[in-house]
From TrEMBL:
<protein>
    <submittedName>
        <fullName>Universal stress protein UspA family UspA14</fullName>
    </submittedName>
</protein>
<comment type="similarity">
    <text>Belongs to the universal stress protein A family.</text>
</comment>
<dbReference type="Pfam" id="PF00582">
    <property type="entry name" value="Usp"/>
</dbReference>
<dbReference type="InterPro" id="IPR006016">
    <property type="entry name" value="UspA"/>
</dbReference>
<keyword id="KW-0614">Plasmid</keyword>
<dbReference type="InterPro" id="IPR006015">
    <property type="entry name" value="Universal_stress_UspA"/>
</dbReference>
<feature type="domain" description="UspA">
    <location>
        <begin position="217"/>
        <end position="272"/>
    </location>
</feature>
Length: 274
């Protein structure tokens, strides 16, 4: 299955241009359409009995929505001018928080590009960021592009493998990009279980059955996230593919874990599935 509908968050963060360029690159490769989404956040209506204050608030709300929509539309148009001419583009505005809006629209998309969680973002430990919410609730893969990053189809891809459902889902979801890659590395990070228990050889065979030649590498490390990021840098990889929240989500949210670490710190574009 190719990517045919690509949903991208138009939030005005430092990675927006890179995110839009990646979406348009994929759309060009797979003859897909790109849907840019503006999430306004939750807007509360004033009390109906507020009189003139109600009218003033409603005008301020209308002005804010118009300015936000125009700014996001301009960013989308600029991206199309850079590299998206001839691609089908649409723009939707959803008056909800970004995570909910991307999830509700994302269920009818093939790939979702949310804004990356920021290292400086002051999100309480037990609350999911927009990217995490979409990952857990949309049933679709997400592609997170770091600020200044770029998607390079046809380059080197590192696929994290631990034999779990989430890893298998991510590998399957990434297959259109793996088929284009010049090199695919299936990376197993051991933290106690032996390599045979991960079914890594069978995963390599599955990829070969789908026309993807992959090399198998096994590493022992206390932190899977650190190991994966190290391999990604050492191999000059262009994309990292992983499953998300293969362990207890509550445990990862409280203690920090592989999913959250990679979402915030992956040095290259990250395709993740749950």
């Amino acid at each position: 299955m190719d990517f045919k509908t690509i949903l991208v968050d138009l939030a005005a963060d430092p990675a927006r241009d890179a995110r839009l360029d990646a979406a348009l690159t994929l759309a060009s490769l797979f003859t897909a359409r790109v849907v840019g989404l503006t999430a306004t956040g939750t807007l509360l209506d004033p009390f109906r009995s507020a009189g003139e204050e109600t009218a003033r608030y409603q005008q301020m709300r209308a002005d804010m929505l118009r300015n936000l929509k125009q700014a996001d539309a301009a960013a989308l148009d600029a991206a199309v001018a850079r590299r998206g001419r001839g691609i089908e583009i649409s723009h939707v505005v959803v008056e909800q928080e970004a995570g909910w809006a991307l999830t509700s629209r994302g269920v009818s998309s093939d790939l979702i590009l949310p804004a990356p969680p920021s290292l400086a973002q002051d999100t309480p430990a037990l609350m999911a960021t927009s990217a995490e919410y979409v990952l857990l609730n949309s049933g679709r893969p997400i592609l997170v592009i770091p600020p200044g990053g770029s998607l390079v189809p046809g380059g080197t891809v590192v696929v994290a493998w631990d034999g779990r459902r989430e890893a298998a889902r991510a590998m399957r979801d990434a297959l259109p990009l793996l088929a284009l890659a010049s090199r695919v590395i299936l990376q197993v990070v051991l933290s106690g279980a032996g390599p045979n228990e991960h079914g890594a050889a069978e995963a390599v065979r599955w990829l070969a059955d789908h026309g993807v030649s992959a090399s198998l590498r096994i590493d022992e490390a206390a932190s899977p996230a650190d190991s994966l990021m190290r391999v990604t840098r050492n191999e000059a990889a262009d994309l990292l593919v992983t499953g998300g929240y293969g362990h207890s989500r509550l445990g990862e949210l409280v203690m920090g874990g592989t999913t959250r670490t990679l979402l915030r710190n992956a040095p290259v574009p990250l395709l993740m599935s749950h």
